[in-house]
Write a structure and sequence with these properties.
It is a single chain. The chain is α+β, with helices and mostly antiparallel strands. It has two domains: 89 residues, no CATH class; 56 residues, no CATH class. It is built from three helices and nine strands; from the N terminus they run H-E-E-E-E-H-H-E-E-E-E-E. A hairpin with a 5-residue loop joins strand 3 and strand 4.
Length: 159
Amino acid sequence: MHSNAMTKAMQSALEVAQQRQQWGAAALQSVVPADGVLLSVKATRQGGGLEQLVWPGILRQLDASGEVLAQTHAADMFEQQPQAAALLMVKANGRPVRRTEFFSPQGSKLIAYMDAAGVLYVRSHRTKELLAVSEPGQPAKLRADFQPLKPEDLKPRLR
């Protein structure tokens, strides 16, 4: 395949993935509780309190009275608050912290879900193919290194 055609195909696929990412973020946001809390777990630090993952991807730490002690963006939480971030990951146990199904404007049924690291994923409901992945704490922003097409997708095929 000509490299210009490959470049155009990749650019088009990235644009479609970005659009799906935005649809997924909007769909998931519509099912987020009014307080924005996606996951909450008792803190292990002195004095207790709570560690929370809050929409759109903030690690919020509360003391026992409910006072906010700190808020850390999801992209920084493993570096700045490793114990609290690890506690959220253990509590989630590999499961999404929030999930919803929705339809694209073209009628495809899609699944959007966020993990405890604040990353939003969009998958095809039918094939389970991963269609888009966000930056941590930025559900509508496609991850910079996300590759919607694999090299084999661009190779010519005999039918």
